[in-house]
Design goal:
heterodimer, A: 289 residues, mainly alpha, MetI-like fold, 2 domains, 12 helices, B: 292 residues, 70% helix, 1% strand, globular, transmembrane helix (chain A), cell membrane (chain A), transport (chain A)
């Protein structure tokens, strides 16, 4: 939309030679883009090569392909369990974050209530709270609640840290939906709740995709909470399992790479699917505030 | 009229408020409380009120506090500036129309989804002299066979910066691309009819439009880079010789390893204050939200 504008101009006089200033030549795009792609993809490629090629091989191609490393990390090193744990934490955080932020974000956007301003300011302040620094008090709380070594501690901590930005994003998005649309539904006899489900919810899809995927990816990737609140191996999440693989100094690079692939594939896939909506969702919501 | 419908908004927002009160505000309060206490799990006989004692130690007797704070600042500034520059350039490029744009976007944005620990795993492979890329570079005459960026104190900082850039640039690229897409095409059209060059249009249309997004994203990223410990914790462990220890890394080490919760809480409070003052000052000085 914003680029090359070739306009049919009826010209009688010989055209004034104006350089098409709005044209970018191909190489101005492909050269820097190619270099940057190299920087992005070589590290991924390195991991894939080490994961799939046989032990002791020196080849720069993952050939002949072997799944030995995967078998080793999946069954021998417990990555199948870590994977399940990460999946549980990721999905549970996604659901709780989205539902809580949806209700709260709608209230912030559509109602003017006492304490609203204070809540907004408080929410901004929470952005300065360092996660690493909540380790001690959160640990104490979870110990009191009997949630140490429970994956639910991770779900709670993840959700709470995701909430402020999610609330801001969703309320920004709801504000962009004309209230008249909802009012029309009410006039037609919908209750506020039914009007919400019929009119608002469908239009919130990009925002929900953004919030949900943020929540999933963040909790899938979180390391510090999992390291601190869980110390039984059958409760480890992937980042913790991976960190232990890195920490072993006899480092088994094939296992490290295969574990990395296991950790990367779900989030990279999710991300590949949603990144378009993410840009849309942010365009319409958060950045404008 | 809307204020009158009293209960609904409170019911809707209650879950968020309760969750944040219980697991953000209360813990933060208790950090401040503990920061005024001697509280060491391994030395319970010394526990008790400490007043500002922890802060006195922190300010005047703990060189590691100042060293880690200094490194935090250096880390944040270098990362945020480089991520912003590369991210902006990347956003401008993938905002153009060209063949292969959709797949290029998906690929260059993808490291954003990768965790700090995994980033460490990948770059350890790349940096290691026996498994990494430097061996192959040496084969074609670039550098030596013994290049080991993570083991060499003179290169460990740069090595960590590059690894974090790999993962961090997409954040800016995504946010700035989102904002670029809201620039009205008519403005560019008008400007180019008036004969404005690309550079002039960038300076006079694009940059002013992006201003708020840049301020907000750099602030969020600065706070995030300050607080984030995953990468450095696993990549360098804060070493060699505390050279790459950030303040949160120092806190995490105090909390996880030495169980000195009182002093750890004082460090936490100090970091929180630093961040809050920095953020307020940054928003004020950058005139966030002001129309130019």
């Amino acid at each position: 939309m914003t680029t090359t504008l070739i306009r049919p101009v009826a010209q009688a006089a010989p055209p004034i030679t104006r350089k098409p200033a709005n044209r970018v030549s191909r190489w101005q795009i492909y050269l820097p883009l190619g270099l940057y792609l190299l920087f992005t993809l070589v590290p991924f490629y390195w991991m894939v090569v080490f994961a799939f090629r046989p032990r002791g091989s020196d080849s720069l191609l993952p050939w002949p392909v072997t799944l030995d490393n995967f078998e080793h990390v999946w069954t021998g090193m417990g990555f199948s369990v870590f994977f399940q744990n990460s999946l549980l934490v990721g999905v549970a955080s996604l659901i709780s974050t989205t539902v809580i932020a949806l209700a709260g974000g709608y209230a912030l956007a559509r109602y003017d209530f006492r304490g609203r301003q204070a809540f907004l300011v408080g929410m901004l302040c929470t952005q300065f709270i360092p996660g690493a620094m909540m380790l001690i008090p959160l640990f104490e709380i979870f110990r009191t609640l009997g949630l140490v070594n429970s994956l639910w501690a991770l779900v709670i901590a993840e959700t709470v840290f995701q909430l402020p930005l999610s609330l801001i994003l969703i309320s920004g998005f709801v504000k962009n939906i004309p209230i008249e649309l909802e009012q029309a539904a009410w006039v037609d006899g919908c209750s506020r709740l039914r009007g919400f489900f019929a009119v608002v919810l469908p239009m919130l899809r990009p925002a929900l995709v953004a919030v949900g995927s943020f929540a999933f990816i963040h909790s899938w990737n979180n390391f510090l909470f999992a390291l601190m609140f869980v110390n039984e191996q059958d409760k480890f999440t992937l980042p913790v399992g991976l960190a232990f693989t890195i920490g072993e100094f006899s480092a088994d690079f094939g296992a490290l790479a295969a574990g990395g692939v296991v950790a990367a594939v779900p989030v990279v896939l999710v991300f590949a699917v949603i990144q378009r909506y993410l840009v849309q969702g942010l365009s319409a919501g958060a950045v404008k505030g | 009229m809307r204020v009158a419908r009293s209960r609904t908004p409170y019911v809707l927002i209650a879950p968020a408020v309760i969750a944040m009160l219980g697991f953000l505000v209360y813990p933060m309060g208790s950090v401040i409380y503990y920061s005024l206490q001697h509280y060491d799990v391994t030395q319970p006989w010394d526990n008790g009120f400490a007043g500002l004692g922890n802060f006195r130690v922190l300010l005047f007797e703990d060189p590691l506090f100042w060293q880690s704070l200094g490194f935090s600042v250096k880390w944040v500034v270098v990362e945020v500036v480089l991520q912003l520059l590369f991210g902006l350039a990347l956003a401008l490029i993938v905002n153009e129309t060209f063949i292969g744009r959709a797949i290029s976007r998906a690929l260059v944005f993808s490291p954003w989804a990768v965790s700090g620990v995994l980033t460490t795993g990948i770059w350890i492979l790349l940096y290691n002299p026996s498994t990494g890329i430097f061996r192959y570079l040496a084969d074609i005459g670039v550098g030596g066979y013994d290049t080991a960026p993570l083991a060499d104190p003179s290169t460990v900082f740069a090595a960590a910066v590059v690894a974090e850039l790999w993962r961090g640039v997409p954040f800016f690229a995504i946010l700035l691309l989102a904002d670029l897409q809201t620039v009205s095409g008519e403005l560019y059209e008008a400007a180019s009819v008036d004969g404005a060059s690309r550079i002039r249009r960038f300076v006079h249309i694009t940059l002013p439009h992006l201003k708020d997004a840049i301020i907000l994203s750099t602030l969020l990223r600065a706070v995030w880079e300050f607080n984030n410990v995953d990468l450095l914790y696993t990549l360098t462990g804060g070493g060699p010789a505390h050279q790459t220890t950030t303040l949160p890394l120092y806190v995490a080490a105090k909390a996880v390893q030495s169980h000195d919760f009182g002093y750890g809480s004082a460090l936490t409070t100090a970091a929180f204050l630093v961040l809050t003052f920095f953020s307020i000052a940054y928003l004020r000085l950058s005139k966030f939200g002001a129309r130019s």
